[in-house]
Amino acid sequence: MSAEHFRHLAALLDIEREAERAENERKLEKLSVQAREALGKTVTRLVVSREDFGVGGHALWVLSRPSAGEEYSPFQALNQGDLVAISYPSPEPTRVRGTLYDVSEFEITVSLDGAPPEAPIGKCQLDVLGSEATYKRMKKALGAVERSEKAFITRLRNVCLGIEKAEFNKPSVTLVKTRAHVDVNPVEINVDPGMRQDDGHIKFFNTNLNVYQREAVEKALAAQDVALVHGPPGTGKTTVLVEIIRQAVAQGQRVLASAPSNIAVDNLLEKLLETGLDAVRMGHPARILDSLHHATVSARVADHDNQKHILELDQQRERLIRQRSRAMDRGHGISWTERKQMDAEIEKLWRAARDMEYGIGRQVLAEADVVLVTHGGIAKPILKKPFDLLIMDEASQATEPLSWVPMTQAKKVIFAGDPLQLPPTIYSEEAKKKGLGLTLFERLQALLPPEGQTLLRIQYRMHETIMGFSSKQFYDGALEADESVRAHTACELPHVQKNRLTENPLIYVDTVGAGYEEAWNDVLESRENQGEAKLALYLYEQLKEAGIPARAMALLTPYVAQARLLRSLGGPNKELEIGSIDGFQGREKEVIILSLVRSNNEGQVGFLGDTRRMNVGMTRARRLLIVLGDSGTLARHPFYNQFIDYADAHDAHASAWEWIHA
């Protein structure tokens, strides 16, 4: 059964990879260079203004483009960490791959893959790329799990497939009484005695954990194989994971923490560093928040005592590069043989320096309390022996093949996530329907007993009115607002005036009858609504005039075309964040203005029908959530009809006309 399962997943991966390739090729064929520039996928007419070296000796090219009177920066759609290719025609047609290291209004910095080639002469073009590296790693992991004879991998494989039952430490004389999952009956569990107090209970590092958070920690420590932490919005899932990690490290365990996205890994790293643990982040520095660069393997290598030897090798290489350039500039230059010899020596010095860095990096990882990395960032075994514990954050956003990449590195796994928020991104409907859409988190929810899973219930983000609809729709009304946030509103923020908007936690602005029709953006293949976008920006200005800082607000929408339209209409404003719901999971603002876009006579809501996306969008706000949408369209879908009823019940249903003629 297990062999067939993993071969089936491998076949689905092939289908998914082809679907993604076909989609990328379709977009490339369909779009001109100008259209790709409009999408932010391509930037032309660039020049390399200077060369440099970054953290860990990575070669950097700084590129800029002379202004041609554009209203916006050509780099506005690029993001630090994007995989890119730089193409240029001279001195010979070349394509160089790299990673965006830094993005500013006037220039970008690219960290090159491998040894740097000779910089281009004249103009070059930058294209944002996809990558097949993660696919290869997933296929490799599936094959390794299928064929593995290692006891810890075999055990995890059988538990995750339901062939064997998950095990938990048996109750001893001293029992910890706690609730199980969403049941009301208490369950007896026992954990490793190493961190117990005299009364038999766990000695928590964080004494502010609530009863459900403590339950999650206790169950995680009691699990021998796997456990689940189900964390709805704002319930402190990261806080729980940090406590589990601290408990494990205190017992002398080696811990690996992983997540599908860089931002999720960085969020966990930030919290771990606050505890004083020796946490080290794997991955390219360009994909990691600037404030966390000091915790990367590259930075730790750069601070190592042996860094001076690496610096000497890099300086020798730079001197040789300058010698080559001077020789080529003189008279008839140098012969082809001499050029090849110098190139070989330059490459040899570069390789020697990188090999030394790699060795130091392995030492840094082996000595760390916690190693953090994205699932797809694991190319080979990190340590000689498996980790004692793997923490998988945002586990409900990772497909099963991606989850197995870090799972081959550890004896025990704690899955943390929320399958009622955004699912993994899958291109192929066929692959999704045939099993790729089912995550390990979801399978284990059905397999594990109450002793192995916990629902966190007390949330520390939202006013209870903002929380209420999500709690009822997705969590059977199980969520509770902590006293500290239960009744807080925007008008209680410093220097904020009390008015119609700021004194209420929820406002549904109904645009029915306003003439705000949706439109299809053919270039972006997405929908937009100009009238709704203008109203959203007007409401933002009203809130700003009332004293709410721009940095405390965000304008969100499910549609990329609407996000782009909002940015265009809003003009340059670095303080106001405008983006898609998908890019905002795990984050929060005091105020969220949510534009739903859809407005048509047919009552079609499109992918708004995946209500998990709305669960994310409607739970990002702490004090004020403003939702803009046409009830004539939205009310034909049961979920949105119930939301409108909820707004009515809380006297939060307003008409757009209140502000159109204001």
Structure described in brief:
With 662 residues, the chain is of the alpha/beta class. The longest helix has 32 residues, at 336-367.
Give an overview of the whole structure.
By secondary structure, this protein is an alpha/beta fold. Helix content is 38%, strand content 19%. Strands 11-12-10-13-14-9-15 form a seven-stranded parallel beta sheet, sandwiched between helices. The protein has a six-stranded antiparallel beta barrel with strand order 1-2-5-4-3-6. Strands 22-21-23-24-18-25 form a six-stranded parallel beta sheet.
Keywords:
alpha/beta; 7-stranded parallel β-sheet; 6-stranded antiparallel beta barrel
The helical percent reads 25-40%
The biggest beta sheet, please?
7 strands, parallel
What is the rounded Rg? Answer: 27 Å
Decide which structural class fits the backbone. Answer: alpha/beta
Percent strand: 15-25%
**Low-confidence spans:** 171-189
Strand numbers in spatial order across the main sheet: 11-12-10-13-14-9-15
Number of continuous helical runs: 20
Mean pLDDT: 89
What does the overall shape look like? globular
Secondary structure: number of strands: 25
Determine the N-to-C terminus distance: 66 Å
Q: How are the secondary structure elements laid out?
A:
Layout (H helix, E strand, L loop, with lengths): L1 H29 L2 H7 L2 E12 L5 E6 L18 E6 L5 E10 L3 E6 L11 E5 L4 H15 L3 H10 L15 E4 L6 E4 L21 H12 L3 E5 L6 H14 L4 E5 L2 H13 L4 E3 L15 H6 L4 H23 L6 H32 L2 E5 L14 E4 L7 H8 L5 E5 L11 H8 L3 H8 L5 E3 L2 E2 L4 H11 L5 E2 L24 E5 L8 E3 L4 E3 L1 H16 L7 E5 L2 H11 L6 E4 L8 E7 L15 H7 L3 E9 L1 H4 L3 H12 L3 E3 L1 H4 L2
Parallel strand pairs: 9-14, 9-15, 10-12, 10-13, 11-12, 13-14, 16-17, 18-24, 18-25, 21-22, 21-23, 23-24
Antiparallel strand pairs: 1-2, 1-6, 2-5, 3-4, 3-6, 4-5, 7-8, 19-20
Helix pairs in contact: 1-3, 1-12, 3-11, 5-6, 6-7, 9-10, 15-16
